[in-house]
Design brief:
Helix content is about 40%, strand content about 20%. By secondary structure, the chain is of the alpha+beta class. Helix 2 packs across helix 3. It is flat and about 105 Å long.
Length: about 300
């Protein structure tokens, strides 16, 4: 049973799709891009990366395969294991293999897996129907030579204007200026008078209002109850998982051990398969959780993995 198509379907909806026993495919949002050298525009997309250290079964791929193929969960897990075994055989014998619509795998000189994602599929659902676009370069025509030819054929001739006698205008201007000054002074006097009378009225009104306020007695028969504001807790969707246990006693013992080591350990409620997850801690961002997981790999448990809600 081929599982490539089921991985592709999940990459459209989830940020992390784990293939048990092989690794996890992670997606990261990339905004629209512009290549100035080729005048190419690229829509927003999901960048796919591969983490070979996340191998634990989180149930996502197996449940999706079981529901789609109408088979039991155990059969779906066995199908995934068989496909992973086939992949490992290919890369050990030939040094490389590819997964359709996802990418190619190969081994470097240090026998580490190198993943190159495909650029033919965009797993960002909001960019559906958008494709890359190459804009033609803008061509600008130069009209300098044509303008010079027109200037030579039709030169501009300046004709001096005859001076006219406008001496009578200065007397009219003097009369208008005198009338304007007189009107301005009269208007200023009237404006100041109105402002003074308005100030007197406002002062008297304010005195009466203050007197009424001093005489009044305020009494509230039914005061409003006090309001308590609750600040919502910060969402922590990224969890570093220490292990998932079938027996609750084992989960509790592992949880207590992590607390003694100084971790902010957390026990989650049993999942739908009846398993008891134990976390090293929860984080608000993917980068913070990824760094914490790397530190835990070095200090305590190299099999710790990332759970994203």
């Amino acid at each position: 049973m081929k599982i490539e198509q089921y991985i592709s379907q999940l990459l459209y909806r989830y940020q992390c799709v784990t293939v048990p026993g092989f690794g996890a495919f992670l997606t990261e949002f990339q905004s629209a891009q512009l290549d100035e050298n080729s005048n190419s525009f690229y829509p927003p997309k999901k960048l796919i990366s591969f983490n070979p250290f996340i191998k634990n079964n989180d149930g996502l791929l197996a449940n999706h395969l079981a529901e789609t193929e109408k088979v039991s969960y155990e059969i779906a897990v066995n199908a995934i294991q068989n496909e992973v075994s086939h992949w490992k055989t290919k890369i050990n014998e030939f040094g490389n293999f590819s997964i359709k619509n996802i990418g190619e795998f190969s081994l470097n000189s240090e026998s580490n897996i190198v993943f190159v994602p495909t650029d033919q599929i965009n797993y960002l659902s909001t960019s559906f129907g958008l494709s890359s676009y190459i804009s033609p370069s803008v061509k600008r025509e130069v009209y300098k030579e044509e303008v010079e030819q027109l200037e030579e054929q039709a030169p501009i001739i300046f004709t001096p204007e005859r001076k006219r006698n406008y001496s009578f205008l200065k007397y009219a201007a003097a009369i208008l200026l005198t009338a304007g000054i007189t009107g301005t002074v009269g208007y200023k006097y009237y404006e100041n008078k109105i402002a003074q009378e308005t100030l007197i009225v406002q002062t008297n009104v304010q005195k009466k209002v203050n007197q009424k306020i001093q005489e009044a007695t305020f009494y509230i028969s039914n005061p409003l109850p006090s309001v308590t504001l609750t600040v919502p807790a910060e969402k922590m969707p990224y969890h570093v998982v220490a292990g998932v246990f079938r027996i609750e006693k084992n989960a509790e013992e592992h949880y207590q051990r992590l607390l003694k080591l100084g971790f902010k350990a957390v026990r989650l409620e049993p999942n739908k398969h009846g398993l008891f997850p134990v976390l090293y801690g929860s984080y608000a961002s993917y980068a913070e959780a990824q760094q914490a997981m790397k530190d835990i790999h070095k200090l305590d448990n190299k099999d710790a993995w990332l759970l994203i809600e």
